[in-house]
Amino acid sequence: MKKLSEWLYKVSTNRVTLAWLVAFLLFVLFVLPKAVSTPWIKAAGLPDTMLRYSSADLYAMAETYGSAGRAAFVRWHFTDDLIFPIIYTVFLLTASSWLIQRVSPSAAWLRQLNLFPLFGAFFDLLENVTTSFVMAHYPASSPLAASSAPIITSAKWLFIGLSALVLIIMGATAIRRCDSPKRGNRD
Questions:
Q1: Which of 116, 113, 96 is nearest to 160 (CA)?
Q2: pTM of the full predicted structure?
Q3: Residue-wise pLDDT tens digits, 41-58
Q4: Residue boundaries of the structural domains of the chain
Q5: Within a 10 A sphere around the Cβ of 48, how many other Cβ atoms?
């Protein structure tokens, strides 16, 4: 993991980080709204976007989606919803590497915080598998997948939240450091 972390610091140049920021913003602004505005999602919501839900909630969504909605859900998880985790993960990896490197290039304990997005992506993909399994097998019961999906979703949001927190803290620290000399000259 340490080698991967260090490699990310090498490749997270200004251009690479900016390119992934643009890709992330374009996907969020133009692709994601269309993807989540489908009738089956509007009717029952989407477990991927929820912070908390239960296995009963997941079964209720499966019922509300209907067979066509469930098929679309499974198809969506293995097409468009594979692309988005890649985009946001690479953006978070490069952005956190870029910022951490500028804020604290030698603090060893900080340097591996740039890997948090990988855990978010892992749980996101696992969430896709478990929720799709429930949808694909509905109305049959899938107790293991249905009961683990909410836990996996919570883990996904935990690591995505930690990744965002790293960006916020490192970004604020970088801004404060850039602003410090200016304040010193005014006093």
A1: 116
A2: 0.90
A3: 888 999 999 999 999 999
A4: 16-175
A5: 20
